[in-house]
Amino acid sequence: MIRVERLRKAYGGVTACADLTVSIEPGTSTAVIGPNGAGKSTLVQLLSGVVRPDAGEVYLAERRITGLGPAHRSALGLTRTFQTSRVFPGLTVLESVMVGAYHGVRYEDRPFGTVGTLGDAAASLLGLPAWRRRRDEARERALAEMGRFGDRLVPRQDDYAYTLSYANRRRVEIARALAARPKVLVLDEPTAGMNPTETEELARLLADVRAERPELTTVFVEHKMNVVRRLSQRVLVMDEGALIADDTPQQALSDPRVIEAYLGASAVAKAGTEMPSGERRQPDRGPDQGGPDAAGA
Amino acid sequence: MAEFLAQLVNGLAIGAVYAVVALGFVLVFGVAKVVNFAQGSQVMLGAYLVWVASGWGLPLPLAFLVAVAGSVLLAVLIELICVEWLGESAEIAPLLSTLAIAFIIDQTVRLVWSANPQRFPNPFAGANLRIGPLYVGLTDIIIIATAVVFVALLTVLLKATWVGRSVRAAAQDPVAAQQMGVRTGPAKVTVFALSGVLGALGGVLVGMYFQQIDPTMGLPFGLKGFAAAMVGGVVSMAGAVLGGLLIGVAESLAGGYIGSEYRDLVAFVMLLLVLVLRPQGLLGSRALTGLGGSRGAGAIPTTSPLADASGFPVTVMGTRRIPVWWVALGTVLLGVLATTVAGSYWSGVLAQGAIFATAALGLMVLTGMTGYVSVGHGALMGIGAYWTARVVTALDLPFELVLLSVVLVSLVAGVLFAYPVLGLSGHTIALATLALGQIGYLLFLNLIEVTRGPMGIGGIAPPRFALLGGATDFSVAWMTGVCFVVLLLGLGLVAAVTRGQVSVNLRAIREDRLAAEAFGVHVRPYLTIAFALSSVLAGLAGMMFAYQQSYVSPDSFLILVSFLLLTMILAGGIVSPAGAVVGAFVLVALPELLREQTELREILYGVVLILIIRFMPSGITSLGRRRASSGDQGPDGKAAAAEPAATEPVPGGARQ
Hints:
Chain A is an alpha/beta fold. In chain A, 44% of the residues lie in helices and 20% in strands.
């Protein structure tokens, strides 16, 4: 569904993405993990088109999208969320979600392009029936996605987004992404800054979405290993811009190279000799609570 | 060859002056992150102070010291008002408040020393130096030498002293500098004081160069200084010097070889080329965040000038508070009053109010909805006005056709106006639109075949309606009625914008351009649409301006008009159609109470603007409502958002 080939990106002297080649199958859920500075966020930026690669290619459903901007990729069905929620603070909650929903509807009607954008704007200015239909459809989708979060968002639909709590902003962002009805959903640390209850709630919701839309391809960056285990079928482990492991969650999280990347070589020695299955070094706890990544979660 | 070299030296001399102005601007922008629009007025005031002190019989160097003292005092005062006093407001606040102070200074100088040009003392006037086959004006050499000495002194001050090091530290990372014990407050005062010194220096050099000074010279010199700074790349001192010299030389060569009327245009055309081809400036780096253009993987700062100093978007209220149809109803009532009860004097004033309300609505659509601050809308209004003047005087078209053609011309003008600005962010937008506004004014002034230059175009007949059987009337009430009808048309357009997806998309771009893009908003076409719609409203206002005055001249479309429009929407509350209309009527009617002293009018606008920014950031129409700034949010808002941002990885540290 989405494929990158020899993707490379460097910031000054630091290689954030070193000749990465990965192919992700349709309808799968893939987690990207790795210590801070491993290049996970850069990968998200490269996939969504916010950052252009220095070299390499990105394909979406076998279509080359390397040179396309974020809006164009979103029109092709690739939607992302941001690590720090980027809701539109001065828009109401419903309006924020409608931005995603409306463009989802619109790009189902017409392909991305300047002429289409101008036509759509004209339809909106003139109040044409085509626009009314899109608006109603978008509104319905937006409310449906907001409804997934129970009474968290729907009662607040007319509040400005800046009045929301941190967790609610994240929910708005995820609702906005889902309302676009993407084919590929890229989530950059969806549970960052959430407490365990909120994390559990969101993980359950994302699992429900996957059950409901089996064709949806999900790629997510995550630090909380319980979430990774629960939601992913495949784990990509990155370190210093390169892929160091690509496996099922169970296998990847017990891979010595992965533990080394997270905790250093001595930890591998300990894990290998003293505590092969010891409770302190269980990978799902290690990176989450004791690892160098705890600060980033 | 000798001719060319003479032009070159002459260009370097005036370029040195631009470089001095640009340096003051760059220093202030680098440390205080404020675009000091008053820089040009500081130059003008510096020149006047030298002139005054010379009048006391002081020799030029002593007179210069007097000017330095005065100029530094003024610069520190600007810092106190625009940075300390208004510092917590949106970034648009210091931007507009320095603009307001610029107008206050200009008008005060005009009040005190009259609008007439004054002769500036230059002991070296007429003296020439002979270098080989070349005669070079001694004044030029002295200007260049003085500028070199001061730039060298400034460089030593910044690089080799502790004051300079703390100033540079504060410029590069104010938070880290504070952590290391640098007091950034004094650093800001220091750079403003230095900009005052540079202002006085610029003043004395400009005075020597032209040997004549007048109260309106501040704006053009300020603008060229900004142009120089932006050509060089805003955050770089070397860039400021390079930009100044380049513009000076290009100007001098254009004046010598193409024609003196193109001299002033050169700077701004160069600026536009740089903005389009290399928006970070010749020596600037895209990685530098000085203008919010970072491209890293981590947190990407908001691009909206309506953001506060920490980059967190200041939430402006939605557009729905006062429905547009209420405004329309109010407009109809006021229109009926204006055409029936009001005497011809007040009817004319209200017609002006309706004209400016239409233009202010246009600016509201752009600045309020997208956050793109335009300081050049006067030019868009002027295009509508000149078009109307030409087609009515030459072709005698009926009103309906004039209206239609103005809409089309304004659409095109808006798209062209948008093109160089779209890729910019933050303060550069305001500067670029200011340059566009000035280009417009210079074109009105110099395209004599089209605009008749300073003479203007007169004898514009009142609107004639072909659909009403050629109905027309020379009465004031008729004209006022048409002005109000056009305002209603404008309100209809605004209603269409605010009702639909266009408004949501534009506001999404304002709040977070990147997120809007990521969720499918096709940003560049949408911004172009906003500029085009805004231009249509400004063009319609210009059309009615031409009809109502029955005369157009370049002086009606000075930057002052753009500034006035900004004051109107800010007074009304930036994002509110009601606010734009109310703001326009109030600010047109208010000065009528002081109609005897026109100079006081502009000072009044400046003071009103500063007071509004300080005490009513959401405008008059929001009176009594809770202030919606990010500061009120507590842990739910800003604090919560800032915390995870701190752990955001910044790969490569390319931005440090």
